[in-house]
Amino acid sequence: MSRSPQTFIALAAVLVVAAAAYTLMSRPSELLDTTPPVADAGPDVSMLVGESFTLDGGGSVDDGVVSSFEWSLGDGSTKTGSTVTHSYGEAGVYTVTLTVTDGAGNVGQDTLTVTASEPEPRFPAPTVDGSVSAGEYLHSVQDPSTGMRLSWSNNATHLYVALESGGSGWVAAGFDPVQSMRGANFIIGYVSSGTTFISDESGVSNFAHSPDTSLGGTNDVLAYAGTEPTGTVIEFLIPMDSGDAMDKPLLPGGIYTVLVSYNVSSDNFTTIHTARGSITVQLD
User: Fold this and answer.
1) Domain range for residue 62?
2) Distance of CA 174 to CAs 124, 185, 256, Å?
3) CA gyration radius for the chain?
C-alpha cells in the first residue's frame, strides 16, 4: 500500500510529540524543582558593642545549588554572601534572619539571636569604704539647691554611688521617680557612733516612702559604708536590675532623675528633710 508524502510527515509529527511527552514524564525533576533549600544561620552570638563578629551560612543545603545568601541584621542593615562580618553600635538583642535562594528560585530562612552588651568600664571599681577620693568615681555632680554631691560609676550590672552632705543626719538618693517621690527607689543612710545604717525603700506616694521589706520586696543594697569627717558620706553598691518588684531596672546609657535630700542633724528616717533637690544623671 502506498502512502503519500503528507502521510509520512503526519506520522513523523506524531512521533516527535510522543517523544517529547515521554521525556517530560521520565524527567520531571529536571524541569520543575519546588524543594526549598534548608537555611542554616549558625548558632546564637554574644558579643560587645563595637566588636566585629562573623556570621556563616555555609551549613545551608539544597538538592541543587544555593545561589544566594542575604542577611537581615536586625538593625536595619542587610548584607549578602555565605559569610559576612558585622558589628552593632548599641547594646541590645538583635534577631538576624538568613534568607537563601536556590537556582530554581526556592527560598529558605533561618534566624539567630545576637546579644550585644556594653563593655565593662576600663577603670577600677570604686571602693565602698565611706571615703571618696579624687577620681574614684567617673561622674560627680553637686546639687546647687542642697549643696549635696552625688558621685557615681556603673557597668552593665552594678551601680556605685557616693552621697555627701554638710550635715550629720541622714542622706538619701531616690532613683527615677514617677511624680515627686512616688515610684522612686530610695537608698537612705546615716552614720551613728561610727556605725553605718542603710535602708532600701520605695516611694509609695508623692510625699512618703517605706522600706521595700515592708512592701513584699527585699533589701537589695549589696555593700555600703559611711563616715562623718566634716559632714556625712555614704557609699553604696546596688544592682542595675535587682529583679525586685519594688525596684525599677536601670539601663546602661539611661538618663534618670535622682532625688537627693538630707537632714542636717537627725538620723531618724521619718524626720523631714532639711533640704532637697534633684540631679539628672546619665549612666554609662
Assistant:
1) 45-117
2) 25, 5, 10
3) 34
Residues 6+ apart with CB under 8 A from 40: 57, 58, 59, 60, 61, 98, 110
| Strand-by-strand arrangement of the 107-117 sheet | 45-48, 107-117, 92-102, 66-72, 78-80
Task: Specify the pLDDT at position 4.
Answer: 55
In a shared domain, residues 196 and 235 = yes
Same domain, 82 and 12: no
Q: Which DSSP symbol is given to 248?
A: -
Reference 100, options 61, 45, 74, 43; nearest CA is 61
Whether residues 25 and 144 share a domain: the answer is no
Give the helix ranges, DSSP H, for 86-178.
none
**Residue 153 shares a structural domain with residue 265:** yes
154 Rama sector, left if φ>0, alpha if ψ -120 to 50, beta otherwise = beta
134 pLDDT more than 60: yes
CA distances 241 to 2, 8, 102, 215, Å, are 100, 90, 46, 18
Residue 160 lies in a domain: yes
Q: Give the per-residue pLDDT at 257.
A: 98
Band (pLDDT 50/70/90 cuts) for residue 54 is very high
Output the pTM of the full model: 0.60
Sign of the CA dihedral with 251 first, then 253, 255, and 261 last = positive
Q: What residue type is 249 in one-letter code? A: P
C-alpha cell recorded at residue 213? 521589706
